User: What shape does this take?
Amino acid sequence: MLARSFLFTTSLLCLTLPAHATLYKCADQHGNITYTNAKGSATGCKVLAEESVSTISSPVRRSGGSSSTPKASQTPTPSSFPSITPATQGARDGGRRTILEHELSVEETKCAKAREVLATPADAEKQKAAQNDLSLCGRNIEALKREISRL
Assistant: This one.
């Protein structure tokens, strides 16, 4: 069996084809870095690597117009797969809702504190930190409300 896998691996390595690749590191006027193998109209590019590399072709896709991944309806759940009752799932959802609502109240409290800091005169560093906190807790509140609405 070991000889078979060695032979298979060796044959795959022999099938790889060398390819030539030039890798560029380009920086735009704003300092954003882009790595590419096609320089195109990019400016400020430096050659990072210019060498032969090995490539392996991807497997051939099966024809027939459908995806090779089976749909959920095509893969039935095995009878040995554990299942839970609707009452158990309801209890789990209730516990999850309680946790999410607690997190929501904590985030709303954080937002209120950040608004208080922004409303009072403070140094620029505290103001910026409060603005960042307000932005973050606002996004967290939106995410928590979305999650609660899915229950």
The chain is about 50% helix and 15% strand.
